[in-house]
Amino acid sequence: MSIYVGSKLNVIDNSGAIYAECVEIYNASKYYGARPGNVILITLKSVVPNRKVKKGDLVKALVVRSKDPVLRAGAHRLILIDNAVVLLHNTTLMPRAKRCKTPLVEELRFNFSNGLKVLSLAPIVL
After folding, report:
1. I need a labelling partner for 85 at 20 to 30 A (CA). Which of 58, 70, 74, 103 fits?
2. What is the set of domains in the chain, with CATH numbers?
3. Which pLDDT band, with edges at 50, 70 and 90, does 20 fall under?
4. Distance between CA 76 and CA 73 in Å, rounded?
C-alpha cells in the first residue's frame, strides 16, 4: 500500500519526531501515491519534548519505506512492513538528523537527488 494524503507514518531518524501524517505529495501521482524516494509534506503528530521540531509543524520529508512492494531487477520483490520517512530541511532538502534507527532501501540512491547523503545515515542498506 502506497502513501496517500492522510496516511500515518513513522519517523525513523533522531530529529525528535515519532509519528506524522501526510498532507501533500510532491512530484508523484495522487492516484498511485508516494513510493520510496518521493518527497512529501507532513505534519508532526507526536514528538519528543525539548527538541527543535514541535507538534503540529509542517515539514518536508523523504519516503524511505512503504508497504507497497519494491520491484527490483530479476523479478525480485522487496516487501516492507511499515511506512517510514526521514525529515528534511524545507529549503535545501538535506536531512535534518545525523542518523537513522532502521535499515533503508537502496532505491533512494537513484530516486532522490540527495539520496547518498540519506543512505549514509543508515546502519544497513537493503
Report:
1. 74
2. 8-119 (2.40.150.20)
3. very high
4. 6
